[in-house]
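Progress report, Aim 2. The chain analyzed during this reporting quarter is listed below.
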Amino acid sequence: MDAATFEQAKAQFLRGVQAFEAGRYEDAERAFADSVRLLPGRASSLMNLGATRIRLGQHARAVEALQAAIAAEPANAEAHGHLATALAELGRPDEALEAAGTSLRLDPEVGSVWLLQAHLLRERGDVEQAAVSYREAAARGADPQLVHYALAGLGAEPAPATSPRQYVEQLFDSYAAGFDEHLVDTLQYRAPAVLAEGLARPRYHHALDLGCGTGLAAPVLRPRCERLDAIDLSPGMVECVRALGTYDAVVQGDIADHLAGVAGRYDLLLAADVLIYIGDLAPVVAGAARALQPGGEFCFTVEVHDGPGDWVLRPSLRYAHGEGYIRMLAGQHGFSVRRTARHPLRLDQGHPVEGLFTWLERPSHAA
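Predicted structure tokens for the chain:
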């Protein structure tokens, strides 16, 4: 290879690095791909190309680049770590665990790879090894709040009252692009439709979709609401929903904080598959009572918990709540329980997750 071609490949590589660091992943992908075309088989260019494709959600193409990087440099721990991430995103957990293990044998000091391995082990049901990997991740700089939350889901530490905000934001930001298809087609999710079918009135003046996601509730609510607003914690989800234009206003923020800051604004609140990320529901129910007009309705779903205690954090890192707890909170905050029903919420690894669908009503004589 002549020196001019090498310099061109190097220049494209550096452009890719600059674009990646600036968050311009499409530009970075093109630059790294150009570098690879000019200088085939260079492990650093292939690895960075794969890492960039992961950021773009191009996981199958990322695997191709990362496997080529590993073929060129088998002891490249970082390439094995990125490969583990791409394989996990493609739903190939056994291969992802193998890649993560190889990465950690080559370089055991990378907290993010320990964290990925821990997640994969947890999802496989290997609680003891998952807990070990979570603690190894924490010792190497992983977010301590996230590690505590995950360990609590395994029963190794006390459960926090709510999911870490950063965890929820990142989880749903990563889902944003294909979330509708994943929920409806893969997980057989229809909670918004079931909640809407149970509403007491045909029309509402001002409704709020709590934790709106990509707006799956909008088609069933929009025809029945003069004004329909939405709120979600995930900036990615909010961006998706604003682009659709199906809501009159979309707010990015915490639902309990938002409800606490308004009084008598809404006559309908709907929270479909949202409260599974909150253990202590008292702030939300109190906020709902404040935000609703007299006679307003609050309908929502939770995962059912029939064991001891008011609520529990499951290994899935979702909370489940007892029906008695829901009824107690409703009474404490002036709601009447108009109806409850149990239906499957969604599938989890092919198995139905039982949900408690609840319709609360604020008395029409409330002050």
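The chain has two domains: 3-161, 170-361. The beta strands are 204-210, 225-232, 249-252, 266-271, 292-304, 311-313, 319-321, 336-348, 351-361. These observations will guide the mutagenesis work planned for the next reporting period.
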